[in-house]
Structures are given as structure tokens and as C-alpha cells.
User: Which sequence fits this backbone?
């Protein structure tokens, strides 16, 4: 199998091929259909590779430039699920756009090219073993996806794009300072091409200069944290999520934020070990996590725009994942579990918000009433995903949040428990009110929904069913996979 | 020679904070980019083909391609050729000076072992350049000046990298350059769209999205 193992870089090239094929399609509709078909193939291949990593162990290739271990394989699987769902949803979403916004051939091709490009860049981030290449991939996603936000050019979408470009470019430049400082902390012991290799840095992490590693981790956390939407660096996030077309918001929230957090997860064990296994880096994550949860809670209370509401939910959940990462092995396990849960229900949330917005012609929650009667499918999807998001049992989000609470209790971080519960409580009350108001209430006149197709029903029902299933019963193989991935973040500590 | 280049860099930083003409700023940033491109030639022991090619690439990109792109953007957007800072030029220059002083102080504080000995100006110069870039991004009204600020910040980071890491793999260095190039390109396209949609490129008026 050595031939195969030397070819995992192909995973990042696959989307490019698929993108080229879709460019040849003769009509906008065919272009979108070919994206979905291509995604199906790519997902099949990627999931096969992921399964192989979990069954037979880490794959390392091309002189260790590329590497797929349990942590990156897990994120790869989450990413493909999000992209697959979003690609199928995109067909239905763009077909239902009002005539003025309908994609012409040029826009459909542009969408396809950037969509595949973003997938390739995100795959590169996940499979590269080199923190420099990882950084290049993150910056590339910023530049590519900027065009997706302003797919339909308007005053507000340009404003959102500009904020996204400047804030994230500067943020990611900070992360590069962190990469440089980390390389400097080796004392130039090992010049040459291994200096930025994650496995190399990991193996010598006990000998790194602790002061420089500390400084570098702050830069990395602020830099990648900006891209992940951790408060207070989240200022770009609500604008970009609310102005982008719904399938784009879904991949932003469902995976791009997680990808930035993944980069922080890679640096966490190095930082922790260089500080002599002190809890300094962990406490920093707990602090940013709690700040995100509380700031998001305040904004969720006073929100009127449906997509902005979901965007602030992203800030909250990224905060919860960061909090989990800071709470030791059990917390990391829960954080990784929460990553999948959040991605599933947030993509469904944005899908529903996009279609509901098209049906009502507005994203203002004060004019969206009676969704369950107008469109049982998407209204139900929105209601279900909001319930899952705020942590109603027995959805899986409730389970992962419960484990994080337990991890906090084990770590004796009682103030963290209080603040987390306060934030989650505010979000629960605030969002539940919105969810109930939108689901029931008097439906406005003249609002009608087209009948739904089988694929749309699957897009709504499958994620909700999956969330219920893994909330009630976690399969042993899934638990093993999470434990393997968590062990990498904690640096092998039990 | 390295010291001289860094001194030029620091002077350009101060000039940027005080300059009022958009075209002048673009030229200053271009000169700074060329200086950054030449820096590795003197930092390393001897001339290698790799170092030379990389320097040539950076000089062409930062000295010719970026300035041309930005000047074209300003012309197409048909904006007033003033920088229009939120604070006055005098105050701006004072902040620039203060940032340079802070950079010198930080340069002595950082626990870094510099690779070639005696490069006392490199670290303060690099940090000061990063600060100047950030200051330009937050204190100037035009979208073009924000792009210039981003470029200055990138210049500072490049100098910083040169000071603290003796050798970054070529592939990664090229990747970073490519990213910067695409970033400037993307920003220029956005400025074009913004100027068509709004008939101005003042970022303080991009404030419809709140809460």
C-alpha cells in the first residue's frame, strides 16, 4: 500500500479536478448538480481514507510533509459531511432564489470554482504536517471564501466582505508571527526543512525555549482565534455569516471555524509541554471560551435577524469547544464530540434559515411567524436545529455540554461552571423565545411554500436523526475514534 | 549594510505616518518593499542562487507589481488623492515616533538569540514596521490605505522572520509570498467593487451592519 500512502496529497487535488469538470457543464443547473455529484465521490474517497487511519494507524507521506492522524482524520470526516450536505442544499437553495438573484452561468461557475478551491485549501490545512503549509492553507481559505460572501454584489455584502478580508488577514498575519516565534524557540538547533514540521516540534517540545513558546502561543491563539470567531476577535463573523448565501454560511459555521480551532489544537500540546505541562495554555483557552460564551449570550438576547442569531450561536459554540479544550483529557474528548454536534445542527440551522428567508422574503424574526404551518419541513428543521443548538436533551449537543461540565467539575474550575451555566442559560431562554415565536404565531398573508423534494427531506431529517442517535447512544467505534483524536491534543497524557 | 537598510525602513515608517498624498504613500511602501527584498542578500553568508532568486522575486512583486496595482486601483476608483486620517498629521507623526520608541524597548526585551551577531537594529525595525502597519490600518479612512497598512505589516513580519529564523524552507517562503500577492489582488478587486457600489472607498462609511 506504499503507493497509496505516498499519495495522500491527492486528497487536496481531488476537489480541483472535480471543480474543473463542473466548469465544463453547459447550464447553471448542471454546474450545481455536478458539484453535488463530485462531492459525493470525494466524500466517499475521503471517508475511506479516514476509516483506514482509524483502523490501521497514522499515514505519513512525502518525507513527512503530509500526515493524517486521528485528529486530522476526524476533522476531515466532519468537513466532508458538512461540504456534502451543503452541496446538495446549494442546488435547492439557488433554484429557489428570486429571479433577480438567480445564478447565471458565470456566477454558477464562479461559485463552483471557489467552492472547490475552498475545499482544497481546507483539506491542505488538515493533511499538512508542516505548520507553515498549514498557515498558507488558512490564509488561502480567507482569500477564496471572501468572494463567496459577495457572490451577489450589494452594499451590505461588500461591507461584510471587506471587514472579513481585513480582520481575518491581519489576524492570520498574527498567527504567522506565532509560527515564526515557534521556529525561533528551537534555538535554530535543527535548521533545514524539518524546522516547521509539527511532528518534529512535537518530539523536541520539552527542549524549546519556554518564554518564546509562550509568546508564540499567544500570537497563534489570537491569530487563529480571529479566524475561529473567538470573542473578542469575532467582529467580522456576524456580518459575514449573515450576508453570505445560506450554503456558504453553512460551511463557514460548520467547518471553517473548526478548521481554525484545529490549528490551535495542533499547537496546544507543544505549548503545554514546553511549559513543563503547566496549565497556562489551557487556562488561556478557558478564558477565551468563557468570554465568547458570555458575549454571544448578550447579543443573542437582543437579536432580530435570524442569520445573525445563528452567527452568534457559532461564537457561543466555538467558545464551548475552546472551553472544553482547556479542561484536560475529558474536556478535550467532549470538545471534539461537540465539534461534530455543532457542525451538524449549525449547518441544518443555516439551511433552514436560508429557505425560510426565501419563503418569507426577509430574515427579520419579527416578520417570520407560523413557520410550522407555512412549511412543515424547513420550519421543523429550523425549530429542531434551534432546540438542538441551545442544548435540549436528548440531542447530542446536550450530552457534549454535560461532559464538559463534568470535566470542569473534575478540574475544580467552579467559576468556569458558573459562568458557562449562566451563559448557556441566557442563550437557552433568549433563543427558545425566538424559536417558539417563529414556529407558531399567526402566519402572514400571502406566504406560501413550494412542495419539498425527497433530497430536501433527507437533508433535514438525517442530521436531526444523527444528533438524536449519538445523543442517546454513542457507538463504541465512534468513542474510540474520539479518544484517539483527544490523545493527540493532550499530548498522549491519559 | 543590514543596519543601513533597517535605518531606511524606520525612516520610511515615520514618513508614512506623516505623509498626506496617497500616491506618495504608495511609492514609500514600494521603496520599503524593495529594501525588504534586498535584506536577505546581506544577512546570509555569501550569495546563493536561491537567495538571489527569492530577492529578485520579492523586489519585482513589492517594488513594481503591487504599486502598479494600487495606483491603477486608485485611478479607477477616481478618489481624492488625500490620505484623510482620522487624526491630524502632526499627532499621527507623534504616535509613529512613540511606536518606534516602544519597538526599540521591546526589541531589547524579547528573549531572542539573533542568528548573525551585531544586528541591533533589525528587531526594533521589524517590530516598529509591524506597529506602523497596524496603526495605518486603524487610523486611515480610505480602503487603499488599509491595504497599504497591511503591506507594511507584511514587510515588518518578513523582516522579523529574517531576524529570528535563520532558514525557512523555500517552498513555504514562496507560499507566503503567493498568499500576500493574492491578498493584495483580492483587496484591489474589492476596492474596485466598493467604489462602483458606493462611489467612495471610505471604510468609516461602511457601517450598515451592526449588533
Assistant:
Amino acid at each position: 500500500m506504499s503507493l497509496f500512502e505516498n499519495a495522500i496529497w491527492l486528497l487536496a487535488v481531488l476537489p480541483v479536478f472535480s471543480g474543473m469538470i463542473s466548469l465544463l457543464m453547459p447550464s447553471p443547473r448542471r454546474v450545481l448538480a455536478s458539484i453535488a455529484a463530485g462531492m459525493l465521490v470525494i466524500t466517499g474517497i475521503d471517508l475511506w481514507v479516514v476509516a483506514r487511519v482509524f483502523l490501521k494507524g497514522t499515514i505519513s507521506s512525502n518525507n513527512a510533509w503530509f500526515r493524517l492522524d486521528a485528529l486530522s482524520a476526524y476533522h476531515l470526516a466532519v468537513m466532508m459531511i458538512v461540504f456534502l450536505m451543503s452541496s446538495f442544499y446549494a442546488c435547492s437553495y439557488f433554484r429557489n432564489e428570486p429571479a433577480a438573484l438567480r445564478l447565471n452561468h458565470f456566477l454558477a461557475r464562479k461559485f463552483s470554482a471557489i467552492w472547490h478551491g475552498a475545499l482544497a485549501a481546507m483539506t491542505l490545512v488538515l493533511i499538512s504536517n508542516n505548520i507553515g503549509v498549514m498557515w498558507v492553507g488558512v490564509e488561502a481559505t480567507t482569500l477564496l471564501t471572501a468572494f463567496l460572501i459577495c457572490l451577489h454584489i450589494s452594499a451590505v455584502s461588500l461591507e461584510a466582505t471587506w471587514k472579513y478580508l481585513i480582520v481575518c488577514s491581519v489576524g492570520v498575519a498574527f498567527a504567522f508571527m506565532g509560527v515564526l516565534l515557534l521556529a525561533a524557540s528551537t534555538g535554530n538547533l535543527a535548521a533545514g526543512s524539518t524546522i516547521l514540521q509539527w511532528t518534529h516540534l512535537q518530539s523536541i517540545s520539552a527542549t524549546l525555549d519556554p518564554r518564546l513558546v509562550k509568546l508564540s502561543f499567544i500570537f497563534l491563539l489570537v491569530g487563529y482565534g480571529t479566524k475561529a470567531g473567538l470573542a473578542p476577535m469575532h467582529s467580522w463573523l456576524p456580518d459575514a455569516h449573515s450576508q453570505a448565501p445560506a450554503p456558504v454560511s453553512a460551511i463557514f459555521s460548520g467547518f471553517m471555524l473548526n478548521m481554525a480551532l484545529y490549528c490551535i489544537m495542533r499547537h496546544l500540546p507543544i505549548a503545554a509541554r514546553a511549559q513543563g505541562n503547566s496549565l497556562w495554555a489551557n487556562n488561556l483557552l478557558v478564558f477565551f471560551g468563557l468570554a465568547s460564551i458570555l458575549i454571544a449570550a448578550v447579543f443573542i438576547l437582543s437579536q432580530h435577524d435570524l442569520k445573525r442569531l445563528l452567527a452568534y450561536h457559532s461564537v457561543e459554540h466555538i467558545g464551548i469547544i475552546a472551553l472544553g479544550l482547556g479542561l484536560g483529557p475529558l474536556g478535550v474528548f467532549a470538545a471534539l464530540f461537540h465539534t461534530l454536534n455543532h457542525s451538524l445542527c449549525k449547518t441544518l440551522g443555516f439551511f433552514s434559515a436560508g429557505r425560510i428567508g426565501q419563503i418569507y422574503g426577509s430574515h427579520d424574526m419579527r416578520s417570520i411567524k407560523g413557520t410550522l404551518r407555512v412549511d412543515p419541513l424547513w420550519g421543523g428543521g429550523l425549530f429542531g436545529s434551534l432546540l438542538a443548538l441551545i442544548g435540549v436533551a436528548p440531542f447530542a449537543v446536550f450530552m457534549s455540554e454535560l461532559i464538559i461540565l463534568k470535566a470542569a467539575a473534575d478540574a475544580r474550575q467552579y467559576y468556569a461552571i458558573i459562568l458557562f451555566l449562566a451563559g448557556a442559560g441566557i442563550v437557552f431562554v433568549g433563543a427558545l423565545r425566538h424559536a417558539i415565536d417563529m414556529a407558531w404565531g399567526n402566519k402572514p398573508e400571502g406566504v406560501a411554500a413550494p412542495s419539498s423534494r425527497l433530497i430536501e427531506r433527507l437533508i433535514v431529517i438525517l442530521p436531526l436523526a444523527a444528533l438524536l442517535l449519538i445523543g442517546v447512544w454513542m457507538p463504541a467505534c465512534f468513542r474510540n475514534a474520539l479518544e484517539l483524536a483527544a490523545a493527540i491534543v493532550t499530548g498522549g497524557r491519559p | 549594510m543590514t543596519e543601513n537598510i533597517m535605518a531606511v525602513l524606520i525612516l520610511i515608517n515615520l514618513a508614512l505616518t506623516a505623509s498626506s498624498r496617497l500616491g506618495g504613500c504608495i511609492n514609500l511602501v514600494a521603496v520599503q518593499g524593495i529594501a525588504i527584498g534586498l535584506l536577505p542578500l546581506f544577512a546570509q553568508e555569501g550569495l546563493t542562487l536561491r537567495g538571489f532568486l527569492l530577492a529578485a522575486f520579492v523586489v519585482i512583486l513589492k517594488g513594481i507589481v503591487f504599486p502598479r496595482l494600487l495606483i491603477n486601483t486608485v485611478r479607477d476608483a477616481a478618489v481624492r488623492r488625500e490620505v484623510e486620517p482620522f487624526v491630524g498629521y502632526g499627532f499621527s507623526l507623534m504616535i509613529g515616533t512613540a511606536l518606534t520608541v516602544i519597538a526599540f524597548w521591546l526589541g531589547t526585551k524579547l528573549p531572542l538569540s539573533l542568528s548573525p551577531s551585531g544586528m541591533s537594529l533589525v528587531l526594533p525595525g521589524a517590530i516598529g514596521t509591524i506597529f506602523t502597519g497596524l496603526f495605518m490600518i486603524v487610523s486611515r479612512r480610505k480602503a487603499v490605505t488599509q491595504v497599504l497598512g497591511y503591506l507594511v505589516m507584511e514587510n515588518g513580519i518578513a523582516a522579523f522572520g529574517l531576524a529570528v529564523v535563520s532558514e525557512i524552507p523555500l517552498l513555504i517562503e514562496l507560499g507566503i509570498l503567493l498568499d500576500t500577492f493574492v491578498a493584495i489582488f483580492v483587496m484591489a478587486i474589492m476596492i474596485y467593487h466598493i467604489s462602483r457600489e458606493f462611489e467612495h472607498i471610505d471604510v468609516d462609511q461602511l457601517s450598515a451592519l451592526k449588533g
